[in-house]
Amino acid sequence: MDRSAATRGWIVTLAGLGINLALGVLYSWSVIAKTLTAEWGWSAGAASLPYAVAVGVFALTMVFAGRAQDCFGPRVVATLGGALTGLGLIVAGLAGPGQLPLVVFGFGVLAGAGIGLGYAAATPAAVKWFPPERKGLITGLVVSGFGLASVYIAPVTSALLGGIGVNTTFFALGGSFLVITIGLAQLLTDPPEGFAPTAPAQIAAVAGGADTPAAPVSHDYDWREMVRTRQFVLLWLM
Questions:
Q1: How far is it, in rounded angstroms, from Cα 130 to Cα 189?
Q2: Which residues contact 6 (CB under 8 A, 6 or more apart)?
Q3: Would you give the end-to-end CA distance of the chain in angstroms?
Q4: Of the candidates 176, 166, 35, which has an alpha carbon nearest to the alpha carbon of residue 92?
Q5: Domain architecture of the chain: domains with CATH
Q6: Residue 26: DSSP 8-state
Q7: Which of 100, 107, 120, 234 is nearest to 170 (CA)?
Q8: How far, in Å, CA of 131 to CA of 146, rounded?
Q9: Which side of the chain, N or C, has fewer Cβ within a 10 Å radius?
Q10: How many CA atoms lie within 13 A of 48 on its CB side?
Q11: What are phi and psi of 97, to 5 degrees?
Q12: Residue 6 pLDDT > 90, yes or no?
């Protein structure tokens, strides 16, 4: 892989990491739920419903988002995901204490779908720039952003709730992540058609005059074949 392609690949990787750090706004709900029960008088069940819907919609959306990013490209899908996430939080901010359905729709449906779209678009775009030997590293880096979001999002949300209240906190988070995710999404791009990343070992072999190792034979499974494999069943059970 030449230097320019490597640089582009790392830009896409870091953009994906940043998008997932923003989409980790899902982790803010534990803090928000406590405020809703304390200040709005919601029950624990009512306060947990928007989060439960968001997680379900998030998981369901990823099924279709993977195919969408293949068809329309990661930039389009991630941009739509960022827009839905930000707008969903803003919609939730329009609700009052007696408007649980509006919060469910905003945070649960809109933001949940947005998170699924953005999450599904970030990783494939990054790994396509690197050889198989690096795919585990790149996938781990991009996906880690989602988990690392819990480190900062809870204290930030807690500070906002204490300073500006529930509704304005939704507006602040929604507006911020709308701008951040859409901006970073513009850096997501697939490699040009026919691009074949070269592994470091292959580069060294060519430089040393050795014959380039033959590419391993592989089979690209479609989803129907994939769900019938032993590996899928074991991973799904785990």
A1: 13
A2: 129
A3: 35
A4: 166
A5: 3-185 (1.20.1250.20)
A6: G
A7: 107
A8: 24
A9: C
A10: 3
A11: -55, -30
A12: no
